[in-house]
Structures are given as C-alpha cells and as structure tokens.
Write a structure and sequence with these properties.
alpha/beta, 15 helices, 33% helix, globular
C-alpha cells in the first residue's frame, strides 16, 4: 500500500531466515518531551446512566451528558490514542532483542511503568489483550504471559492517576454477573478509569478448558455476546444514582428501594440478583469491541463506545467507519459517539535508515517455522495438512474458518505470493492492518492524514518493541500532534469516559 508519509503498509517487509538475535540499542532522537498532565486532586464525580433501557442514550457531539450536574459546555475534539501492551512488544521477536529481561512481562511493575509512560503522553488508555486458552507450539517462540488482565490492571490502577485501563474479557467463557462485578471493582479501584474490550473468543482451543461442549459457531457466540452485554448493563444500572446514602445520621447505608434486581431470564443466562456494590464512578465502564466481522460490527454498533479494527488504508477505514455509524443510528444511537480506532503497529527512529535497521533486527530474529505454523493457526487451518514449501493450495481457503484476520490472510494468498511459507514471511504485523517504519515526523504526518480524511477517530498504537518504541512515540510523536492541535495537552477529567468524550 502506498501512503503519503513514511514507510507504511498493511504488512511488513519479507523476513529473512532465522538468525541469532542482535541486541537493539534504543534509536537516538534529540530530546523532546510531551507536555505532562496537570494532575489535580481527583474529583470522583459520577456520570448518571439513562433511565431504563440498556443501550446508551444519544448525546449531541461535543456536549456533556445532560444527566450530569456539570455545566453543559462544548468540548474540543481530539485524537483518541490507546496503546496495546503485549509482552515485550507487538513484534514476535521483541522479547529476543529488547533491553529488558524476557521475564519482565511477568512483573506488575513492568506494566505500571508502561502505563505511566502512556500517562506522560496524555494517552487515553492502555489496552490488554487476553485469551482463555493457549496453543502449545507458540510457547516455544512467543512469551506465554497469560496474566489475568483485570487483576493486572487493578495493580496498575494504584500506581497511576489518569490513564484508562481496558481489559479484554470473553463473553463466551465467562458469566455476566461475575464479569460485571469485576469490571465495576476495577472502576472503583481506579477512580473511574475502567474499560471492557468485548470479545467472543475465536480460538476453539479454549473450549476444552470449560467443560465438554464444543466451541460455539460464530453466530451463536455473537448471540450470546449480545445477551451477555444486556445483562451486564442491567447489573451496572441496578443501583440508581444516590441509592448509596452513607448516612451516619439516619443509620442507613443504602436505600433498597433504589436498587433494582435484573431478574433476567434469557436463552443463555438466568441472572436474578443485583451487584453487591453501588454504582461505580463511571456508571458503566467504557465499552470497546475488537471484531470486524459482520456480526462483530453489529455488536459494536449496538453497544460499543470504541472499536479496534485492522484497516490498511484511509479509504477502507472511512468506509468501515461510515457503515458502523449507520448501523449505530439504526439502533437509535448517536452515530458520532462510536469511535473507530484502527490498529497501528510501528518502528520509529530519527531517520528512515535507523528505523529500517531496528526493523531488520527484529526480522533477523524471527523464525520462519513459527511464522508458517502461526499463519495456519490464525487462518483456522490444520498445520499437519500443509506443506509450507509447496504452492499455496487454493482449496485450503474454502475449508478455513472465516475470521476477520483470516479474511486478510486469504487476500494475501490470492495476490499470488507463492508458497505458504512466503505468505507467512509477510505476516509480522496485524493481518490487514497498518504497519509503519519511519521517523516520528512521518508517523505524525500519517496520523494527521487519516484524521483529516475522516478515516479514524484515533488509533490503537501497537509498539513493536517495548518499552523503547513507546517512549519514542510519547516523547516525539505526541508533541508534534499536540502542536498541531490534534492531541490534547492535558486530560479533560479524571475518568476514561471523560478522556474520550463518551458519557455513559
């Protein structure tokens, strides 16, 4: 893909055969600092949710929710920037070349440091992926760090002040009452900074960890997800604003008359009782969704405040955004309240040559064996049926599971890439997504171009190497975006919903 800034494309350059990893020294860039947040005393004000109903009530763009006690005022629109934190970085070889110990992602302090860096850049949130299962072959090549994201973010919450905390939780392999309680707990512990990335879990390997039932088909998973979210919303809205009295004078801690039990009886769930804690600071955590399938878009249009999506170019992203918002309007929602945040993986240095050198170091440490086996896994194929050095067999495409990422892989294969291994060598980034190698100025230009094309409301930035690449983004890309007025120079409030301008 050609873009007007830097070296960016929907896939990375072809890799080379695996070679011993070469230590990477942080790219040197002249010192610059993002303006730090003006952290004032926390105001734990709460946002009132809509009366009745379980879908968000429409709110005019740029205006605070009228149900709050705050003065209604216009809010300037800024980029929404979340950072995706996975192990030592998004690139599969990051753990081999990072200056950090490979065991660092198993320590809570590692994530707290990354979150504080993001907070220094006035980013909206850190975002942790999760899967309730693992594929054993990947443990040989990738860090297997399946820490529970909600518990991990609870530890990060007490070490940070403003940064949002988004945890991935599956609707297929958890229960809504438990999930609603855990997310409300994180919202209290963080003072209103919790977010929920809603996923249905595409990988069938998880099924064996939760009983004897087979992994549900996609349509069934999304039907369950819709009911799951409905129940969670009923639970969060069960405690009315002011139901908790905290009155020593009257001796009443809460007013039972203002606590509503969900009394839900549905196809997938039966949930009778309310949550055992008051309405949390945000009322509801920020809801995000990461699927780009037809069913995923429908789920996002009905419930999500923000959508993470792989998009390769501004035109495709703008069309995705327009379709999503049209569907949101069909659900009676204000379409401008659904944010589109494409994934953006990157490698930065002060020169294009320097960035290419960092990228080359990552590629030199990559394993071609892992890549073709991982491609088969992502595409829903059985590796035992594949000869990686034979021409890519077209008949495989008809038998593979149709996932969002899989569709991008199939498109790569149809471009005549040669063998299965050839296709796999191009897969070092988000399938179908935007991958960048270049300078901070070029990356800021790319982000600005997408913004001006109405192709995105921000990005989910995915540093290929942690912590260095996140430092470079915060200290050198963010200040450029701040000077142009696209990125904020201070937080708008204390809650994640205030950061992104999405009242509950």
């Amino acid at each position: 893909m050609r873009v007007p800034y830097g070296s960016a494309r929907n896939i990375a350059c072809p890799g080379t055969a695996a070679r011993p990893p070469r230590a990477v020294v942080s790219a040197r860039i002249r010192p610059a600092r993002a303006r730090s947040a003006r952290v004032s005393a926390r105001d734990r004000g709460r946002t009132r949710g809509p009366d009745g109903g379980s879908r968000p009530a429409p709110v005019r763009p740029g205006v605070r929710d009228r149900s709050t006690k705050d003065t209604v005022k216009a809010v300037q629109r800024h980029l929404c920037l979340n950072v995706y934190l996975r192990n030592s970085g998004y690139h599969e070889s990051a753990w081999k070349v990072t200056r950090k110990d490979p065991r660092a992602p198993l320590e809570a302090g590692y994530y707290a440091d990354l979150a504080r860096t993001a907070e220094r850049g006035i980013l909206d949130a850190v975002f942790l992926p999760d899967s309730p299962g693992m594929v054993p072959f990947r443990a040989e090549y990738l860090p297997t760090v399946g820490l529970d994201p909600l518990e991990l973010l609870a530890s990060v919450a007490v070490r940070t002040d403003r940064i949002g905390l988004i945890a991935t939780v599956s609707t297929t392999y958890t229960h809504p009452w438990e999930t609603a309680r855990r997310l409300a707990t994180l919202d209290f512990l963080s003072g209103g900074r919790a977010g929920w990335n809603i996923v249905t879990t595409v990988d069938p390997v998880a099924a064996g960890n939760f009983g004897d039932l087979p992994h549900p088909e996609r349509t069934e998973r999304y039907a369950r997800a819709e009911e799951f979210v409905e129940v969670a919303l009923k639970l969060w809205d069960g405690w009315e604003e002011g139901a908790a009295l905290f009155s020593k004078e009257s001796g009443r801690w809460a007013d039972p008359g203002r606590i509503r039990a969900p009394l839900h009886q549905g196809r997938h769930f039966s949930v009778r009782g309310p949550l055992p804690l008051p309405r949390s600071p945000q009322g509801r955590p920020l809801l995000t969704q990461a699927g780009s399938s037809r069913e995923g878009i429908r789920l996002a249009a009905a419930y999500a405040d923000a959508v993470f999506t792989p998009q390769a170019d501004p035109e495709s992203s703008a069309a995705f955004r327009q379709d999503l918002r049209a569907q949101a309007a069909g659900f009676g929602r204000a379409p401008e309240r659904v944010l589109v945040l494409p994934g953006l993986s990157f490698v930065l240095a002060d020169t294009e040559r320097g960035a290419r050198q960092v990228r080359a170091s990552l590629e030199e440490a990559a394993s071609s064996e892992f890549r073709w086996r991982n491609l088969a896994h992502l595409a829903g194929l059985d590796a035992e049926d594949i000869d990686p050095d034979a021409p890519f067999p077209p008949e495989l495409l008809s038998s593979a599971a149709r996932t969002s990422f899989g569709q991008s892989i199939y498109a790569m294969a149809r471009q005549g890439a040669g063998t299965f291994r050839d296709v796999a060598q191009r897969l070092s980034a988000l399938p179908g997504g935007l991958d960048f190698t270049g300078t901070p100025e070029q990356l800021a230009g790319l982000i600005t171009h997408w913004w001006r094309q109405d192709a995105a409301d921000g990005f989910t930035v995915m540093p290929h190497l942690l912590p260095d690449q996140l430092d470079l983004f915060v200290d050198h890309v963010v200040p450029i975006l701040q000077r142009s007025g696209l990125a904020r120079t201070e937080y708008a409030g204390t809650t994640l919903r205030e950061h992104v301008g999405c009242p509950a």
